[in-house]
Amino acid sequence: MTTSGLRIPTPIDHRAAVGAEAARFAAVVEGADFATPVPSCPGWTLADLVRHAGSVHRWFAVLLHGRIQEPPRSRDVDLQLPAGGDAWAEWLTGSAAVAADAFRATGPDTPMWAWGADQHARFWARRMLFETLLHRVDAELALGVRPEIDRALAVDGVDEFLTNLPFAGLFAPKVADLRADGRTIRFRPTDGDGDWLVRLRPDGFGLDPANDGSGAPGSAAPGSADDGSVTADATVHGTAADLLLLVYGRLTLDADTLAHEGDADLLAHWFANSAF
């Protein structure tokens, strides 16, 4: 697959943000009925959702402590699941503490295997952040709470998704069908700076390099994939938060908060094959 090269994360403290998002998640589900269905994760209950999120924290922590240099052969980890079904919020908080211990023990610049673009420990903190944030949103949607997402995190989340998606074929096999003869899709936030131009090529897809004059892929800040002068074949407009929910399938393209223009077939092709 072709990509535009490694894009440098924003100055967000991803490790601290994981803890903050986990705390928000735990507060949302405290006292909830954990048998509540989660519409944005079909077939899951709130208990399934919390178990998944906490399991991610604990498994990623094992990877960080081990400073893995190759794909792990097992996903087995001691989850220390709660004894009672009403203790999921406390267990999730404990899972975040396990992750925090791993962050303290492993510097973000530590070289590690990662399935995405960035082969360092910081990849896992950034990935864990958006796993936690999106599933916090899932819990809120299930409980009828209107989600709120910090704009800086939303911008970073869209960038993280689009940067790593070309590498996700192991668990998202349909990305192999994201091919075209140079067709482009622009994601443009309506609430501030930021812009992403994705190019589909015959041999793969990825974000276009930054046009900042340096010629170095990834030398511009995330959300600045090009200078905005390239005419895209299709463009999607929305707040950074809504674009994040869109790329993760929590919103659909026909949502009232989004607008789009250009090649509708290209957009349909993208969203049919980019599920993460």
- Multimerization status: single chain
Second CATH tier, the architecture of the largest domain: Up-down Bundle
At the fold tier of CATH, the topology name of the largest domain is Four Helix Bundle (Hemerythrin (Met), subunit A)
C-alpha geometry: globular
Order of strands, main sheet, comes to 3-2-1-4-5
- Low-confidence stretches are 1-9, 211-225
Task: Return the domain count.
Answer: 2
Q: Termini distance?
A: 16 Å
Q: Characterize the main sheet.
A: 5 strands, mixed
**Nearest-integer average pLDDT:** 90
User: From N to C, what is the helix and strand string?
Assistant: HHHHHEEEEHEH
Strand content bin? 5-15%
Cα-atom radius of gyration: 19 Å
Tally the helices: 7
Structural class: alpha+beta
The level 1 CATH classification of the largest domain is Mainly Alpha
Write the layout of secondary structure elements.
Layout: H1 14-29, H2 46-66, H3 88-105, H4 121-142, H5 151-164, E1 183-189, E2 196-201, E3 204-207, E4 234-238, H6 240-247, E5 259-262, H7 264-273
Parallel strand pairs: 1-4
Antiparallel strand pairs: 1-2, 2-3, 4-5
Commentary on this structure:
The protein has seven helices and five strands. It has helices spanning 14-29, 46-66, 88-105, 121-142, 151-164, 240-247, 264-273, and strands spanning 183-189, 196-201, 204-207, 234-238, 259-262. With 276 residues, the protein is an alpha+beta fold. It starts with 13 loop residues before the first helix and ends with a helix. The protein has two domains: 14-148, Up-down Bundle (Four Helix Bundle (Hemerythrin (Met), subunit A)), CATH 1.20.120; 172-273, Nonspecific Lipid-transfer Protein, Chain A, CATH 3.30.1050.10.
